[in-house]
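Data availability (excerpt). The following record was deposited with the supplementary files.
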Amino acid sequence: MPRPRTPRGTAAAINDEDAATVAAFTERLMPDAPDKPGARDAGVLNYIDLALAGAYSDLQDFYRRGLSSLEGYCRNTYKESFVRLDPARQDAVITALEQGKATGFTWPTAQAFFNTVRTHTMEGMFADPIYGGNKDFAGWRLIGFPGAQPAFSAADMKSKEAFTGAPIIGLQAQAPMRRG
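Predicted structure:
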């Protein structure tokens, strides 16, 4: 059964409540820093939402159950939802998931949920922007990856210095972007 659309009609597979949790979780996995983009800046939520509506549609129930178990664990442990926890407690929850110590998970297991969200966070940070993440090449710029180029000159190929050309802007501009 499809999840309700957000009031703005921008969600592809995740409702607003789950989107807020995914956004907070991914931002703890890949936080921003001064002059360094994090998951929010790179549009990781948009990537995950679009992936769950498309290529990863078989993982919609996995995410729903995992997010429900995450909320149950947070409420039982801290009497608050994940998004209302301070960053230190969010990190403690994520560590408990990673170590398989978070209780209340059946399927997916806490570790499986953590590993999947972590993998999707990295994909959303560093995949080609056509898939809805890596907004404005944030992840590529973070690691100095030049992205697609029509050609590298002989001097570019011999240089020991980081390539400074901008990534080619292409189809990613056509990918729908979830705001938030």
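Summary of structural features: The helical segments are 16-29, 39-42, 44-53, 60-78, 87-98, 110-126, 138-143, 154-158.
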